[in-house]
Amino acid sequence: MSSSYSKASNGGEQQQEQLVCVTGAGGFIGSWVVKELLLRGYRVRGTARDPEDSKNAHLLALEGARERLTLCRADVLDYDSLRAAFTGCHGVLHVASPMSNDPELVPVAVEGTRNVINAAADGGVRRAVFTSSYGAVHMDPNRSPDTVLDETCWSDYDFCEQTNNLYCCAKMMAEVTATEEAARRGLPLAVVVPCITTGPMLQQALNFSSNLAARYLMGTKRSYTNAVAAYVDVRDVARAHVLAYERPEARGRYLCIAAVLHRAQLIAMLRELFPQYPVTAKCEDDGKPMAKPYKFSNQRARELGLEFTPLKKSLYEAVVCMQQKGHLPVITQQQRSYL
């Protein structure tokens, strides 16, 4: 690690005077990125559409937040608000991303990303990290089952559009825009590519992946799909962002995948960890053979120094967190027999 990012030699005092801005700081991934930066001694500026909203209160309670965290109002579609947020920042970690299938999502994602990169470059930011998605990587029906999914893979845009996976379309185009704009402006850029992200929440509201696990646990989602998906712990994703930022040589994509499982394997893991819950047991019968897990490579992320959390540990801690925050009832073995 270069000296500008590490502890000074005189008595171990933190040399971190760097100010790093995190867009979408209050979200599931953004909150953990903020926490990781604070733990490493950075000064952090988090953007939110409404910094005063109580849903961002968890950020102000983080260790080091009182001394080194400020929240400011910014919107990715408002260049001037971004330019103000990035003033004085050494780095920008662009995590903010709407998650929907709105037809307007693609142009909004592209315009927002262009604004972020240009506001960062205009503000003298020295380094940027962009959060993409494995939705931009794995959605290709023509990929051979023997192909190892890695940073060279891209989703098939037409296939995503035809199957109404507009979120994947948006992430693909946003990533392309970020890469092209950063190259044009001479802004060093690394891209973190997380998959389905699980683990404990810092924010109060349920995020998509936690909600899905809760619905499987409680049996409210009656069946699971005959599908394969990739999973990673949110804390690993946060560390990947900071490691990619801290390494001056880090460029291009870094795939964050810890495990690839059939949904049946995920369900079996939940049932093993929490046998007292009425876990969904039925697979949707689509008449097709069981989908097979594919091979993947997370070598580039490991070369950054990232170690991946076992999925079982990540799931367990996600569920315990949901119990603690009141999103899941705490069911004992005895209660299970009455369900």
UniProtKB/TrEMBL annotation:
GO BP field? lignin biosynthetic process
Q: Which GO terms describe its molecular function?
A: oxidoreductase activity, acting on the CH-OH group of donors, NAD or NADP as acceptor
Q: Which InterPro entries match?
A: Epimerase_deHydtase (IPR001509), NAD(P)-bd_dom_sf (IPR036291), NAD(P)_dehydrat-like (IPR050425)
Signal sequence annotation: none
Q: Name one Pfam family in it.
A: Epimerase
Span of domain NAD-dependent epimerase/dehydratase:
20-250
Keyword Oxidoreductase attached: yes
**Entry keyword set:** Oxidoreductase
Q: Which PANTHER family match?
A: CINNAMOYL-COA REDUCTASE 1, NAD DEPENDENT EPIMERASE/DEHYDRATASE
What is the recorded name of this protein? Answer: NAD-dependent epimerase/dehydratase domain-containing protein
Give the originating organism.
Setaria italica (Foxtail millet)
Q: What would be the name of the gene that encodes this protein? A: LOC101757221
